[in-house]
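pinging the channel bc i need a second pair of eyes. not urgent but kinda urgent?? the chain im working w is below, pasted from the shared doc
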Amino acid sequence: MTETEKDRTEGGTGVDTGEAKTDLRSEARVSFEELAQTGRPVEERFARRVRINLPRRSNAKLGALLERVNDDDDLYGLWIAANANAMERLGMTDHGPVHVKIVMNIALKMLRLLVDRGIEPSVIRNYKMAAEDAEVVVAMASLLHDIGMSIHRADHESYSLFLADAKLRALLPVVYDARQAAIVRSEILHAIISHRSGGAPLTVEAGVVRIADALDMAEGRSRIPFEQGSQSIHSISAAAIESITIAPGADKAVRISVRMTNSAGVFQLDRLFREKLQGSGLESHFELEASIEGETEKRLIRTFRV
């Protein structure tokens, strides 16, 4: 088992938001074999439960919500079912609790970098709420954006909306009164639907979630379909992504550095990341640089047959 696989199995913490840089490879968490393994009993899946950790910088509202999230068996069951559809039945990448935990931490990291550069979250601009409320929107949208996969892959973003709506009506009153909860719930649902292909975010928070979803492509997640034998350009290019680092940019708020083992990874960045970034409303605040590790490229395939 590689160090990356070991980290995934142990359910490692997320982004260390107290540091200037974040190496997302250290956040990958469950062995490739375990993620793709089918036929495991419900009790066994719950026994290996992934805990959702609150990144550094205190946020009392978000902390209280995450306590409830970690105790919510119904929500965890939806994450398990989403991953069964994605990985075990469709041979896709991880869409379960590991994925949403990573997306949440990436999104919070990016939101905080944006705020540090003076970019105002939409809940502040429109409703005079606080940065902590923007973090609640980003975190909860990240955690709930793929639960519709528990129903079906096709149009899963729409299915996520009605499942998330019911979940948010139960969770948000823990920290918000009825009036505030209605606003926050609407902002979260907007961020969820905006992560779909061709989505058009109208808020900073929704744009952040859209981009963060595309950035869970480091080795621990992207190699799974490839290791199972898929040899499409999508699986090959994804397998070429070694790690992703998020840091403050020199000229822009967020700098994303991607290390690749093979130049095929450029396809992944061009087709997936570019599509998510364009139309996010945050294009002018992000910069991306990709590089290939070492002097020679890693061989990903020996033969290709049609």
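so The longest strand covers residues 241-248. and The first helix runs from residue 3 to 9. — does that match what u expected or am i reading it wrong
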